[in-house]
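Run log, item B.
One chain of 574 residues. Sequence copied directly from the ordering sheet:
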Amino acid sequence: MSTEHVDEIMAMAPFSLMDESRFPSQTPLRDILLNDTRIVQYQPGEVIYKQGDYGNSAFFVIDGDVRSILPPGIDEETLGRRKGKSKSLVKTFTQFLDLSPFPESRRLADYEKARNPLFQQQEYAGTTHLLIQDFPAVVSQHNTATIQPGTFFGEIAALNRSPRPTTVMAHQHGARLLEIRWQGLRELLRSDTSLKEAIDQRYRTEALIPFLRTLNEFSDLSDDALKHIAEATDFVTYGDYDWSGQYKRFLSQAELDKVKEPTILKEGDYANGVAIVRAGFARISEAFGKRRKTLKYMGAGQIYGMDEIRHNANDPQSTTPYIHTMTAVGYAHILLIPSTIIEQYVLNKAVNKSKPEATSSLVHELEGSSLTMSPAQARKAKAAKSKPDKSISTEEATPVPSDLLEFFAELRFLNGTRTMIINLDHCTRCDDCVRACAATHGNNPRFVRHGPTHNRFMVANACMHCQDPVCMLGCPTGAIHRSEQGGQVVINDLTCIGCASCANNCPYDSIRMVEIRDKKGNAVRAPDGQPINKATKCDLCIEQPGGPSCQRACPHDALRRVNMSDLEQISDWL
């Protein structure tokens, strides 16, 4: 952005209506526009983003014609994504008859055959752009909505850390947009009340209420009750949205202990509301001498504070504060709902259905966790009056040892939904897992059998298919995406252009760039003579009927792919 562009934007509503004096001196409005935004010109038919993409920026229409292709929209395969269909039994067995002796060999005819007739890639201004060919016909075949000049769009997915709900493109005469990085949008919302209220209202109606319906505590509430809850909910972001860059920097310097975890709710404070993780991760811990002991970690949709509020509502004479501390691990987008609202709409609903037990425990089982109390512990908690009973947080109450939880949290492995854990006491280093992986991927293994270790457990260097897939941010063609069928993060080799954005973004170095060859072993080169690279990673054997071949091949049950949010699953295997 130039100062001339900033002057142009400042002359337009809503920026012209913003009170510059309300912005802090360290982040004035003009500096935000200068450093955290850019003006982008889109050609007619050019895709701004595709349905299912992840992005960390919002857009403001300066002028032009912008269309949103409404659901169901363009199908996945046409969008250039991988089918993800399992192979038949015949193809499963015959795939081993066509293994190439050369590394990373490809059938070059597949690229020409798979050329998408709908989309065309173009290079200009040093960036890859995606254009919809014959876009008037595409628009006529789908339901669309026009996004008018002077309007924001894409901000909810950016704030929500969620996939884009629709495909958005420039129509007819093209469009000129102001792209706002997430950091800049956050600063605008902090200082401009009217913009915050407008975006908050959209967030509440379009994203918050549908999300609350997915949670057990709110699923059967009336529309009116959900509306009141949504109106009272506050949205707070803790930590760094771009946490992966900071993580990789401190990891390379072996200084992960310097990574700060902002406090969301503090042990001992008055329980004045519940915190729901909307995106990112949080750690639940308790004081343990001069340090803290991790009890569990929480991901999207999990709630903390509900049980303290339930206890206080049932027994107002023996109120208890928060008994644990909740901190953000890397990044966490939190929904904060006041205790009075929880009591009025959620707890009253429960009371109307069934009377509370005479001996209510201080802490019931947290949503998705295994922190439970025995009857004896419940009686202690009842008698403790306003003091939280620390006996409920014993090592026995945690299904996974606390030191192992610390290891998982410190290295951010809690992000994984299919993390590869190897029990080194059972592993004989036979490499059957690596050979099985190579055999199902054209003689090219997609993981490395080494990684960080803690006691007898090692987390192998393999794609974890993260809940928060930062690798997907910024892919220009959408080649890396989440499968519709099983949620696996996969790469379409046919649409990957080798830009390495996914490999650079991955905080775990689980994506590698490789030079491809033809079936005769010759290096494939671009017209300028440079080798053609492709991004490769574990795809969880998405096309294999039996699932991950690495796990199936292990003769000693030393290897397991686990969901890190399911502590019971990890505990059972341990």
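Observations after the first pass:
- The radius of gyration is 26 Å.
- The chain has three domains: 3-80+120-189, 192-400, 416-573.
Flagged for discussion on Thursday.
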